[in-house]
Specification:
mainly alpha, membrane, about 80 residues
């Protein structure tokens, strides 16, 4: 399940990033950061399953930080 979620989130984040770079329209940047944070959460949970707790905690910390940044970005617009 986590692998499928990772395979779905990765191209979505990539498409939004490429769209922003090509069109110079950064309206979806906060959503992209939120989805990227969710991708980090999924990767962190996968690392916990592999018994790599240090990397898992680091990825979850990145998720929390990106969640905070994306919420601030959405509220500022």
């Amino acid at each position: 399940m986590l692998k499928i979620l990772r395979y779905v989130l990765s191209p979505v984040v990539l498409i939004i990033a490429v769209y922003g770079l090509i069109t110079k329209n950064f309206d979806f940047q906060s959503i992209m950061i939120l989805l990227l944070g969710l991708l980090m959460l999924v990767m962190g949970l996968e690392e916990f399953r592999k018994e790599k707790k240090t990397l898992g905690w680091l990825l979850i910390a990145v998720f929390i930080f990106s969640l905070f940044v994306s919420i601030q970005g959405l509220l500022m617009n």
